[in-house]
DNA sequence: ACGAGATGTTACTGACCAGTCACTAACCTG
DNA sequence: CAGGTTAGTGACTGGTCAGTAACATCTCGT
């Protein structure tokens, strides 16, 4: 946790580079979990599979996380953080121009889909939205996890409605919601159209048409 | 399966109506499974829970279904059949007018959302699309179940593109795909906006705007 | 009333899975 | 080098779950 221990992870002298510096167990677990949860679903991945993938063991897991659910919560929050990072990067070049920001966002979705696999920004896309998919699996009485997903989706809605307002659209809330439907539909359909030819490839064009319709 | 056994389910004379004719075990299992799978997800419902809800026992279950997976396959196909029924009913009043058919379909989605709970046609909506949600849970190596979901989504896409073509839209495939994104987004967001105020309430308006944009 | 097919009961197997325990080994820091 | 921290091992508990076996009962058409 301390700055000192962080520095210690960096080799002071060049050493046998056979295997790069092994990160802390906790981080390896998080990385493995992110990968496995995303690909196989949360209920489809057991703790043993995670620790095996992370090259560690169950005791180290439970020393780092009180329970599997706590790891899931961290996974969801990590995915959310990464998503907002990706979002902000996509819209940053057009600050002050809400319309261009939305268009850049939608184009970024298309680019993500057309990218080979996991790309630099750490965003996975081949199975759509990690948080949305989690909503299918989280039991309804799990308030903690459901709240994470709900807050995240509510923030998406809030942002898109704000863009619509900023571009002075007619009925900005309707436009914002419509854009959200496109976006969510894009993620959802990735589950069954994992190739680069699914309906999501039309999302940028559709968004432009929708915006035009609200800019009389 | 035979016509004779079907007829036997219909009482020939009026009889004690205390409890309506108890359907065959197999059908009760299917009904319970449909309800539980939809509400809690497929991996979240065990065989014991299904047979208890159906008022039967595990042996009768395995006499009627070779495995849980076979029940899941039937569940998915049942849901699909019910969905097309609902779809066809929604568009039937506007046969020959593709644009009105799409508009009626989207309005039917809104109506479904605004309906209190499960409605007459047997369509459930509070947790979105049963088939789409299943796609989150089905392991990638389960070709049989994945094929069911894929074919279903491909048919949605095919139909919407056909409507777009029939209404002589510009770039009909793009319009069809855009409509599909709206539709799928509507289902997906139902998971996290289960009330009647989610983005899906804007779907009919959004669809009209999109169609307009393709009808210059 | 009878037989056959449909259904129920109980108990079981084997696999999986979350979480724990006692103990050991490596490593960093002072 | 001492003592704390971090990580690894293997065995274990208690629970869940899919699927099966043997046997008992019910129902319905004839």
The residue ranges of chain A in which pLDDT falls below 50 over 5 or more consecutive positions are: 1-20
Largest pleated sheet of chain A: none
Give the strand tally of chain A: 0
Q: In whole angstroms, how far apart are the ends of chain A? A: 55 Å
Radius of gyration of chain A: 20 Å
| Strand coverage percent of chain A | under 5%
Q: What's the SSE pattern of chain A?
A: HHHHHHHHHH
- Oligomeric organization of the protein chains: homodimer
Structural class, judged by helices and strands of chain A?
mainly alpha
Q: Can you give the mean pLDDT of chain A?
A: 88
Q: Pair with the most extensive interface?
A: A-B, 49 and 49 residues
Helix content of chain A: 55-70%
- Overall geometry of chain A comes to elongated
Number of helices of chain A: 10
């Amino acid at each position: 946790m301390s700055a000192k221990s962080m520095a210690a992870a960096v080799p002071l002298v060049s050493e046998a580079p056979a295997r790069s510096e092994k990160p802390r167990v906790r981080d390896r677990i998080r990385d493995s979990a992110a990968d496995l949860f995303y690909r196989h679903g949360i209920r489809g991945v057991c703790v043993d599979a995670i620790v095996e993938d992370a090259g560690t063991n169950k005791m180290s897991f439970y020393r780092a996380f009180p329970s599997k659910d706590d790891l899931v919560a961290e996974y969801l929050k990590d995915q959310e953080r990464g998503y907002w990072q990706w979002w902000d990067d996509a819209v940053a070049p057009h600050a002050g121009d809400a319309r261009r920001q939305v268009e850049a966002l939608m184009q970024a979705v298309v680019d993500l889909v057309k990218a080979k696999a996991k790309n630099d920004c750490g965003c996975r896309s081949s199975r759509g939205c990690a948080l949305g998919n989690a909503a299918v699996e989280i039991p309804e009485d799990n308030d903690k996890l459901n709240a994470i997903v709900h807050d995240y989706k509510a923030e998406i809605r809030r942002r898109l409605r704000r863009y619509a307002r900023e571009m002075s659209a007619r009925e900005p809330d309707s436009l914002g919601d419509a854009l959200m439907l496109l976006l969510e539909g894009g993620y959802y359909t990735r589950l069954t159209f994992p190739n680069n030819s699914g309906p999501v490839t039309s999302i940028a064009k559709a968004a432009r048409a929708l915006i035009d319709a609200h800019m009389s």
